[in-house]
Amino acid sequence: MRGVGPTSDEPHVGAGRHRTSTAWRIVAVVSAGACLATVVITATGEWFLTCVDEDDGYRLSGIDCLGRRWQAHAAAAPARWFGFVPLVILWAAATLALLACVAHALWRRRRE
To answer: Is the pTM of this model over 0.85?
Structure first.
């Protein structure tokens, strides 16, 4: 069958490019999934703030913590497992990877 695929005596042109393209697509799908997952987990976390009053040592929560050293805590299970800062770091890394994939796709399309 001629024209269907490479034969044993014909070199396969573009094999490395296909693997690179597939790798970028896998990175894009994984980063989009991670970005979506972190947004959903963070949005459903039922977050609240806690802090300690420096003057008398009482524990404060909510709006009383604004302007102080506060910590975010979650009441819902998935967000409580991860914590606020790791979720933000994971979201930022996934977003940067997704933007890199989009930039690579636009650069490749422009080059062709």
So the answer is: no
